[in-house]
Predict the structure of DUF1428 domain-containing protein.
Amino acid sequence: MARYVDGFIVAIPTKNVEAYRKLARKAGKVWMEYGALEYVECIADDVKPGKLTSFPQSVKLKADETVAFSWITYKSRKHRDTINKKVMADPRLEAMMDMKNLPFDGKRMIFGGFKSIVEL
């Protein structure tokens, strides 16, 4: 069964990684509660600047930051839309919806929805 994936890339000040982990754990629990199939947050371990493009370049990474790469999987886009509507209305995540409260610069977050075309 082909799944639908929301993907994210964000630059996090290194000093805020633990705050980000705490926020992600809380958000992930809410997404999973509403039916997401998978919620994954990763911190860069081996990402180097490229000549044309790279993860660091994509978020205009600064010297005191690290890259986070994340994804949430769903049964379908309709399933994603239904879950996200509930998540966005959940009062437990209200503070997260205010860009001033995030442990990273939300303006540099890259995100989007993707249809899977190969799953092995």
